[in-house]
Every structure is written in C-alpha cells, then in structure tokens.
Amino acid sequence: MTDAVPTFGRPWAALQPPLSEAILDAVSSLGFEKMTPVQEGTIPVFLGNSDVVVEAATGSGKTLAFIIPVLEMLLRRNTQLGHSEVGAVIISPTRELAKQIFTVLEEVIKLSNLEFKPYLVVGGSTSATNTADELTQMKETGPDILVGTPGRLEDTICGRLKRGKKTKSGTITATGSVRGRPSVSAAKLEVLVLDEADRLLDMGFEASLTAIFSSIPKQRRTGLFSATMSEGLGQLVRAGLRNPARVQVKVADRDGSIIERRIPSTLSINYLICPPDRKLAQVLRYIQCNNAQKYIIYFSTCAAVDYFFRLLRRMLRPSAELVPGGKQALKQERQRLKPLFNVSYPISVHSLHGQMVQKKRQATFEAFSELPSGEAGILLCTDVASRGLDLPDVDCVIQWDPPTDPKSFAHRCGRTARAGRSGKALVFINPGSEEAYIDFLMLRKIPMTAGSYLLQNKSGSIVEADVDIESDDEMSSLDEDDHSDNEESTKPKPKKEQKLPKFPADPESDQLLDMVRDIAAGDREIYERGKLAFVSFVQSYMKHEAIYIFRAKELPIVDIGRGYGLLHLPSMPELRGRSLDKFKRYEIDTDTIPYLDAKREEQRLVRLAAEKEAQMARKEKKPQKKKNDEAWSNAKEEKETAKQRKLKRIKKRDAKASAEEARLLKEINDPKLLEMLAKDPLLAKRMLNRREKSLKDMRDIAISKPKLPQVRQSLEEIIDSERQRRAQSHSSDDSSSSDEDDWEAIARKEKIKAKLAAKNKKRKFTFDPGFSEGED
Ligand SMILES: Nc1ncnc2c1ncn2[C@@H]1O[C@H](COP(=O)(O)OP(=O)(O)OP(=O)(O)O)[C@@H](O)[C@H]1O
C-alpha cells in the first residue's frame, strides 16, 4: 500500500491573477505556506470568470478553494453591496458541514481584516419563535455572504412558500401560490457555490436549488465542488452553470507517477473478510494494537449507533452508573474484560447520527474534536458524518458495514488522511457473499488491500492469524455454518460442508460475545436497543444500491444476531426459512431484565403488571390460546399473514375483473361503444351485471344520438343478448352479485382513496420545506 506524502503545490504568492494582500496574510496566519493541488488548479480558473466543476479527493482543501475566490470576487466589485443585499451564497447539504464552512469563512475574514459579514442559515431551530428571532437578527446584520442548507436558503432568498405546490423540478404548480417576502435581496449576487453537489441531489434538494437558481442573477459565477460526482449532476450543471471548466485533481503516487485514485495517497484502506460474529473482537484487538488514537466507526443505521454506543461505553469506560450492582460488580466487570481487552490509556466513546437533536450533535462534534491528549476516542456514527466533516487528527476509520450508498465509502474513509496526514481505514466484508465489493471499489478507483485477521495468543498478545481467504472454492462453499466450529470440522458432513473451516477457532471472541449477552441480560436498555439495531440493520441491508453484491438472501443473518450479542432472535419475516439451530437462546425470562434507571424501571413494572392483569382477564373470557414468547412479534406476524392474504385476494379479484372486462370488450365490436367503455370501464361491468339503471342509461345515450343509428342498434342488440345470456346463467348460478358488489365497492374505495390522497397531498404541501434537511 502506498504511503505517499501528498505534493503541495506552489506558494500562494505565485497565483495568477495574484491574490490580494489581505487574503495572503490570512492564509499565512493559518500556517498554510503552499497551496494544495486543488487550490492551485481551481482558484485562478474560478477567478478568471469561469464557472467550475471541481472533483478532488477528500481532505484535499476544497473549502479554501472556493472560499478564497468568493472573497476575492467580492473584493473586486466596483459597487458596494447594500444592507440587505448578498453577494455570495454557499450551499451545503448538512447543517454540520454548513457550520464548518462558515467557521473557516469567518476565520479567513477575521485574519484578513476584511469587513465582510457572513451569516449561517441552517434549520434546526427548536421553535418558530427562535426562527423568527434568527430572521430578525439576520436582517439586522445585513450579511454579504450566506452559508447554509438548501431549504433555509431558499426561504431566505426566494421567500417562504406559504401557499402553492412545489414540484421536483422546483416550479410552483398550483395557481394562487404565494411566497413570503425574501429576507435578503440576491439581485446583485456575484457568486454561488454548491459544496458536496452530488449529495445535494441525493438528498432531494433539487427543487430548492432550482428555486434558488431562478431567484439569482444569470450573470454570476457558479462553482460545484465534491469528492465524488454522480451522473445526475449533469442536469444540475446544465441548469445552473455556463460552460464550466472542469478541475479534476489526480493523485501522485510515491514514485511520482500519476495514478487514478479517488482517495488521498496518504490513506491506506484494508478490507477484512470476517464472520460477522467476530467483528467486535477484531475491532477491540485493532484498537489494542495501537496507541491512544482517534477512531471513527461507521454503522448503517441510527439504531446500530445507539446500541453500540451504549455497549462500548459500558465495556470500555464502565462507571458505577453504568454497571448495576455497585463497586464490586464494576470491579468484576473490569476484571472480566481485562484478559480480552486491555489498554493503558482511557477511551471515550461518542455517538453521532441524524436522529439526534442538533445541540447534541454539535456537542459530540466538539467533544470528539477536542479530545484530551493521551486519551483514545471512538466516534460511532452513520453517514450523517461521512461528508466533508473536518474532524481533526482522525487516525483510523472503521466501517462496521459497507455503506448502502457506494459513494459514501470514499467520503467515510476521507475523514482520515486529510491535508497530507496519513491515515488508515478498515472495512469489514461478510465472507461468502460480499467479496465482489473489493473489485467493485477497485473499478471505482478505490484500491484496497487485505487486512490481517487478529487473534489473541495464550499470553494475551495480539497476533496476526493465517486465514486462507483467497480460495474461490472455499469462498463459494462457505455458508453460515462453515466458519466457526473447529471441532465440528472433524465430523463427517454433507458434501457441501466438508471444506475445512476458513477461520481459526477464536474462543476469546466467543467469550467477548458471552460478556455482551450477560450485560444485555442485566440492562434492559442495551437488550432492547440490541434487538432494534439488529432489525434495522437487516432492513437497511435491503436498501443497498449494489444489490447484486449485497444479496439479502445470502446475508448470514444468524451470525449477525450472534455478533450483536442478542439474547434471542427477534421474530421477523427475514428469518423465515432460515436454519436458526446455530443460535443459542440465552436462558432468561426477558420480562425480568430491568432498566438501570430506577424511575423507568418502576414505570415498566407498573405497565407490565397492568398488561399481565389484562391478559389474565382476556384468558378468562376466551378459550386459552397458544402460548406466545413474544406477544408483540407474533401479533406482527399475524398482521403480516393477514396482509399477505388480503393482497392475494385483491390480486385474484383484479385478475378476474380484468379477464371479464377483456372478454366483454372482445365480444362487443361496435367502435363507438368501445370508445364509451374505454372512457368508463365500470359501464361494462354494470352492463354485464344487468344493472337496469345503467342499461337504461346506455339505451338513452344510444337513442339520444340519432346520428348514430348503428350504435343504437348494436347497443340494443348487445344489451338484449347480454340480458338473455345472463338470465339463463343466473337461473343456474347466482354468484355474480357478490362480484358486482365488489366492483362497486372497489369503485367506492378508489374514490375514497383518491380523496384521501388529495387531502394528504394538501397536508404535505403546507409542510415547511425549509426544515426538511433530514439526513440519514
Ligand atoms: N494549503 C493548505 N495547506 C495545509 N493544509 C490545508 C491547506 N488547505 C486546507 N488545508 C487543511 O486541510 C484540511 C482539509 O480541508 P477541507 O476540509 O477543505 O477538505 P475537502 O477537500 O473539502 O474535504 P472533503 O471532501 O472531505 O470535504 C483542513 O483541515 C484544512 O485546514
């Protein structure tokens, strides 16, 4: 793996056209002597009156590559901006990123002694009053540069949409749509920047962007920046940019040769093909092998972050509040972990995901950024923290699961190895099904090398184990039962399972999982969150964009459950048809698992008692039913079965109806009637079912059109013959009335559905788009 040092470019003073003294002072005060390649490539082009599309690796200094031109362009203006006029707008997909850009911008302005007033425009206010206060404050400030998220910026620049419907393309369709007054005037806007442009589209901000484009002058400069570009960007480029210059920064390898890779040359990425029930041991061993460092661990879902945060905090930084049973229990738990994980420095555990309130997100961000020296820090997060965040000095990024959006992979890894620092990344791959992901990333210019499987030897030291993971033969034969049982391997097995186990026995990993289960058995919060995390992970697996690699059917679901330290597998449709024998249920009545929080536990016990009483009462009333271990899961299953049955019924009914309709249409060959029936398919059904009123209607229609004698004739003929045929068949079989009722009922239901949909649409439409920056 390459460990090249990135080549910084020339000194700032070498730029042509030259930067102003104030900006040169600022970059020098920041301690940046030379430009990074992306800065050297972008600044002169952007300042030379060209729109730019910039693609450069993570951590390559893109932020300054647009902040400096923005300030320079405003400095070069001939006329001054008025109090309510803005000269530049920078759009970012997330609040964190917007805040980060704003901080850098503020710092550069301060260090350069310029008098520009930047303003941060993001959602996340806790109330409408706060929002109103923020607006007033912004108007008082009279900002020159706005940095923010798309929805809020749209409200600020275009005015808040009070009435009207916004389509995906950003046009307002409903007549009588009304926007409030814009809070600023963008009439003299000089420059627009879209940071993480592909993400802006992925998050569905197209409409807001289009609205912003239509409210700002066409004669402006626009820059589009990202480490990854998606195909959808073409449309955005056409809509918002004019003949843009493309700046693409290639990475120089150690020997100076130019190689095509999407990641910095200082970043080394390892993949580890590892059974999912051994990931926890691998992560802890990896940490143990290094000094106090900063780690980011990515998970697919918020629920997984919440669960592992609680679990790791309890294991790695246990305290009297976290461990029930007082000091003695705390000591015992520490003793139990010691042979499995032992480091001499303190470790703090943090979590960050999109469902956390903004304040907490910010606090986590700051705490992890300002970690005391000598302390290791682990930040557990979802992809909300994958893009753009410049967390200082992250040593290693671990991906517990590959991201559902392949583009996120490079962004996740890019939180380390920033601005010339070296960094490591590790991604876990499930054996037997996900190996193709390695080639998939190679093709996307993200090279990876195999990482080592770590084992603990008898003296407790961590050693690299020999694992044969290259053989395709073994790969294809590996299934859920193949990898762990060494003893099992000596027993005769069916043909497919006769391969040698790929992974060595790892009793310490099993001990670790036993410890996790014991913890869950004594802490309801962890027990419940574990189940939630597992279910949400399995569901998120179905959402992988690369579904041909991440095939739900091949997901080693039982091993994953074991790896999560579950006490039992929750009942879920994805487990149907799987062999669950390998999973050993933890012997405990789960009702007895307490919350550590006394008040919460008290409430739970009261609720439980009430539920039991109600259950007893029901039992006395009804004949006894089959005993359920988990009432909630069975109820869910029953609901699912009922839903399936209903769907089947509807499908059958629909098929029957279409067949009937087709048959009728085939029988009737009058063109005018066919036209009428095409316009009103129910007419055919009514006719078929001898609804007198409808027949009369049809006859009337035919008679009232004397110009169409043929139609009248054929209609009457058809109706009469149909009546005769029906009369005959009704005398022997009178089952069609229910069918008719169905049709009428379906028509009625359709009407109601349409009405409801219209109502819902109305409701959605009043929702404030400015607050919709939902990440995750
Ligand atoms: N010329 C420079 N010399 C040294 N360090 C720099 C220079 N320019 C920027 N940096 C530093 O590099 C780090 C990464 O910069 P920045 O956040 O702009 O990267 P980025 O390309 O936007 O990354 P991402 O794609 O992940 O958002 C920051 O900590 C920044 O302070």
From TrEMBL:
Keywords: ATP-binding, Helicase, Hydrolase, Nucleotide-binding, Ribosome biogenesis, RNA-binding, rRNA processing. InterPro entries: DEAD/DEAH_box_helicase_dom, Helicase_ATP-bd, Helicase_C-like, P-loop_NTPase, RNA-helicase_DEAD-box_CS, RNA_helicase_DEAD_Q_motif, SPB4-like_CTE. It comes from the Eukaryota. It is found in: Nucleus, Nucleolus. It is an enzyme of class 3 (hydrolase). Residues 473-485 have a biased composition (Acidic residues). Residues 12-40 form the DEAD-box RNA helicase Q domain. Residues 473-508, 613-654, 696-744 are annotated as: Disordered. One of its GO terms (biological process) is rRNA processing. Residues 486-500, 626-643 have a biased composition (Basic and acidic residues). GO terms for molecular function: ATP binding; hydrolase activity; RNA binding; RNA helicase activity. One of its GO terms (cellular component) is nucleolus. Its EC number is 3.6.4.13. Residues 43-247 form the Helicase ATP-binding domain. A motif (Q motif) lies at residues 12-40. Residues 279-470 form the Helicase C-terminal domain. Residues 644-654 have a biased composition (Basic residues). Coiled coil: none annotated. The Q motif is unique to and characteristic of the DEAD box family of RNA helicases and controls ATP binding and hydrolysis. RNA helicase. This is ATP-dependent RNA helicase. It comes from Coemansia brasiliensis. The lineage of its organism: Eukaryota, Fungi, Fungi incertae sedis, Zoopagomycota, Kickxellomycotina.
